Input
Amino acid sequence: MQPISPSKPFYRSLAAAVLSTVSLFAQPPAAPPVTNVLAILSVNPGVARDQIMKVMPGEVRDTVRLYLDGRIQQWYSRGDGKGVVFVLNCKSVEEAKGLMDALPLAKEKFVTFEYMPLGPLMPLRMLLTPPAPAQ
Output
């Protein structure tokens, strides 16, 4: 049995495949569209529980209103007991800040928020790309 000796066209197509794969990874990934914003509320240091409790009735009413208006998609208590987490139906961090800054606890400067834009899991697009034809 003789060893397989690839021809020049084989090497050209192999090189083209390697170069196209390398260029795929050399490009920065496209930013996903923002579909939601994660807002993490933390109580500021030095704020007493009784200060927070005075504001809570208004805070609860306003957050329930945001939920019923479809602006809050999900809400959770933080596992560390230091605040809450909201998944907001917003298309930008600026939009989310506008909603959260209007809440009573934020107006009183009792809390701060950390924001993270969320979007579709972009690597899933690779599943939609047809495989390169075999040559």
